[in-house]
Every structure is written in C-alpha cells, then in structure tokens.
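PROTEIN DESIGN WORKSHEET
SECTION A - STRUCTURE
LENGTH: 107
TOKENS:
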C-alpha cells in the first residue's frame, strides 16, 4: 500500500516538474524583444499594485471590526469594579446573617 502511494506521488511529481521548470523560461521566444519584456514587466507591476490595493482595503476594513486593547482594559476594569461591589454586598449580607438578621440569609 505504501509503495503504491510512493509510486503515485513520484509519478505526479514527475508529471508536474516540467511545467514548473518552464514557468519562467529565459529562452521563451515571445520574450526576446525588449518591448515584450517591458509589457510583461508592466503587467506584473500592475497586478502587484492591484493586489496591494486589495490588501490595504481588506486591512482597513478588518481594523474596524477589532476592539482596541485600551477598550478591553476598560471593560476588564469595569467588570472587576462591578465584581468588587457585588462581593462587598455579599460580605455585608453574610455578616448581617451571622449577626442574626435572618432576612439576609438565603434559604
């Protein structure tokens, strides 16, 4: 089983290797003239600029969806203060219950 998978992977690699090797052929007859190379370079530059504009737009939109760390710290300190208030009220109720005020005791 493993030998068959190895042979299959080797065959796929052998089939795809020539296509990858010819992807940027320096002896390509269509790229012999300076004008053709300039057009190709300009096309590549344009694609890169379009992709850069897309990435910048995507990043600008994604920043709007994230909360800033300052907001998280503020939310944490607010939650911590609320917790401290609840704990203080609970401790007062426990002290009152222990002092004999039964209305503060939970049944």
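SECTION B - SEQUENCE
RESIDUE ASSIGNMENT:
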């Amino acid at each position: 089983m493993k030998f068959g998978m190895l042979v299959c992977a080797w065959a796929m690699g052998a089939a795809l290797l020539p296509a990858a090797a010819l992807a940027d052929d320096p002896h390509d007859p269509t790229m012999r003239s300076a004008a053709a190379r300039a057009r190709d370079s300009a096309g590549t530059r344009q694609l890169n600029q379009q992709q850069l504009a897309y990435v910048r737009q995507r990043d600008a939109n994604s920043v709007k969806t994230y909360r800033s760390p300052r907001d998280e710290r503020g939310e944490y300190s607010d939650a911590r203060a609320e917790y401290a208030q609840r704990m203080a009220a609970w401790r007062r109720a426990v002290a009152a219950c222990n002092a004999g005020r039964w209305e503060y005791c939970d049944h």
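SECTION C - NOTES
The CA atoms of residues 28 and 44 lie 17 Å apart.
The helical segments are 2-21, 34-65, 69-98.
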